[in-house]
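This section describes the prediction task in plain terms. A model, or a person checking by hand, is given the sequence of a single protein chain and must write out its three-dimensional structure as a string of tokens. No templates, partner chains or ligands are provided. The sample shown here is typical of the held-out split.
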Amino acid sequence: MRVKPRARAERVGGSWGAGELVVAVTAPATEGKANAAVVAALANAFGVRPVRVTIVGGHHHRTKLVEIAASTDELQDRLDELRAG
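The expected answer:
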């Protein structure tokens, strides 16, 4: 996943590089604010509670690895929709 902090508007969708999902958040990349906004945006986009979204890698980078606790089939379908933009 590729994060764009300090974006004009929050948006989850599109792809970057090798098909990474793009997450744009308005929060700055300081003091974990962007990470918290990413978790909230992904939870909303995938229809899960924020507690089910965990950043497992890339806490201090724009490229992040995220785990979402939900059905694999449902996640894959929604991920494909979001990547398409």
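For orientation: DSSP finds two helices and five strands in the chain.
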